[in-house]
Amino acid sequence: MIKEGYFIQGVVQGVGFRPFVYKMAHELNLKGFVKNSATGVSIEVQGQKEALELFQLYLSSRIPPLTRIDSITKTQLTPTNLQSFEIIQSDTAASSKSALVSPDIAICKECLQDVKNAGKYHNYFATNCTNCGPRYSIIQTVPYDRKQTSMSKFEMCSSCQEEYANPLNRRYHAQPISCNSCGPTLSQSIGKTAAFINNGKIVAIKGIGGFHIVCDASNHEVVLKLREFKNRPSKPFAIMCRDAEQVQEIATVNVKELELLTSKEAPIVILDKIQNAGIKLSAYVAPNINRIGCFLPYTALHHLLFKLLKNPIVATSANLGNEPIITDSETLMSKLPFVEFILDFDRDIINGVDDSLVQVIAGKKQTLRLARGYAPKVIKLPYKSEKKILAVGANAKNSVAFVIDDQIIISPHIGDLDSSKAFGFFERTIETFKNFYDFEPELIVHDKHPSYMSTKWAKTQGKKLVAVQHHLAHIYAAKAEFGLHGDYLGFSFDGTGYGEEKVNGEAREAALGQGTLWGGEVFVGDTRKYSFKTIKLLGGEKAIKEPRRVALSMLFEKYTLEMIMKLPLACVTAFSAEEIKILHQSYSKNLNAPLSSSVGRMFDAVASFANLLQFQSYEGEAGLICEQNYKPQITEAFEYKIVDGIIDIAFDFFDKEIVSKFINTLVNIVIEIAKTEKMEVILSGGVFQNKTLLELLIKEFEEEKVTYYVQEETAINDGGIALGQLYYYLSARNIIGI
Ligand SMILES: [Zn+2]
Ligand SMILES: [Zn+2]
Ligand SMILES: [Zn+2]
Questions:
Q1: What is the mean pLDDT of the segment spanning 337-350?
Q2: I need a labelling partner for 454 at 20 to 30 A (CA). Which of 62, 90, 308, 550 fits?
Q3: So what's the pLDDT on residue 497?
Q4: Could you give the residue numbers annotated as active site?
Q5: Is 100-185 a domain of CATH 1.10.3210.10?
């Protein structure tokens, strides 16, 4: 007889881990107990040697789907006289709260079957179990217990109570357990909702982390109407399809994409549209681009609805502009009065969380929005942080991150902080996490940009502050994901971020309008060694919305005003002669014309020269349009030179193949620098969301045997900045002892 003790850490509470241990112990005829503690799960098992060996093997190989084991500590104990195996009460003295909060998970196969079968879950819209259903979105605080969730107001019926209490049941301690007779109820029938959608109405439907605005994706008129109401001229809408087969009638789906679509996280996956698709979607769903974001039903409610729907549906987050997702029907009605019908239910959403957004590049996942299903996300460190640290991220696509002991925890996507709503959501999210983990930061890490709302907030907190340069934070986000230390060759290409420049050997921080906005930087270790030749952004922020301004600025570099007026280029004809004169003044006198080395802005200019677009209605539109106009048969590129670390591309603005040649040039530049520096490479920043560019680069890296890292599980765009800030601090602390 042998007795062993185990202590297990990771995502092990509220995910069916104790019943799993209980079942296993019974199968193997082991005695002892399993219990939750504040920091994990402890187990004592006693039995035959072979049985204990199997127990240990199964402990890591057969775990329930939502469990994630970070560490197992095993101890040998002295056998005692034990008769049974029990699940025993948690330690109540527990005061530290580091047991992790699980993300919200799509309905599992077993629950879907329960919804189909006769019984108390038949057609029940909120069916869930320990392997699926809401988590983060319904939790007030930890420990994760029904009375600390928005399910607290629903009293379990005797049948649910029985399931909840039975360790051999799939719903043992499933906190949101409920059924047709005891759980939340819908405000309207599913049949009526489906009829409204089928009849071309705009409908709001409550999901896990917020409301979706929904309409028939095949109906031109209603999709166009929705665009007008939302004041969203061209930013693509995501589509929810009945099942993977229906997605395949709209888009091509490879193995990895299928895996992601049908995964328990159920993100929106950006796919290539099929020309002449079997299902005719309205052209207004994703206008002017050949890609489309699709996702599958992830609650019983969605599945029940799709039994009655004729077509795939537009399912876009209910919000205005870049504001956070709306989680209650009162706000919905006041903010989005054009909604013609609301399907609500009475389980409150405590923490709003958007849909996650991913794409597949070269067979690997790329995360564009880390939210429902994936976040809160944990990255385990090989050491413990001495301080409790909060990183507040960028201004756009904001998320926050913090470190407790040896865990970095990344919040779900918060959004662009410019609206007061979004900023409120930012503050609320920080409060939520402080409350979850009894966390009070001793230090706050922030971006160097003084006008970022996150930076301003950090400065009012009265804590010790550390500022991290934006593009270095991008590189460190990748280092955090892959657990990298030491020096790498980091390519940090994005829209624009706050730079710094050395003037007379001293660092001078650049401000909008007088310094340089970075966005095309190459770091060797922490030192910026290469950067693109700067362009003046005419009108500052305005230039970001109008690619024609960036293009015109590049013409000013090369030609006289007189010559430019005669050029047959769309960026010229898109302005009046008077406007061009005024812009030329601001160019030559440096009035509201900050310098920028941004590769993102170069994509804008190229899209303008190619006459693909002169105005963009959402961030990254020019890049997306360039991507689809790339011609693989064009192998030529522009000449470029690198002098004193400044990369200068010799554009031919009149070249019909400017898009393809520009992308090829970027590839050549990255490869040349990688070969020169002979270091392992990191690629990060929003520009690398460009599938064409990244695929070409990966192909070259593999041919040239260059080791490279591209984020998969964390956001490669500004959504990853908070993580990078935190990891930069943690890494720097060890070197320079901040
Ligand atoms: Zn389930
Ligand atoms: Zn019930
Ligand atoms: Zn950035």
A1: 97
A2: 550
A3: 87
A4: 18, 36
A5: no
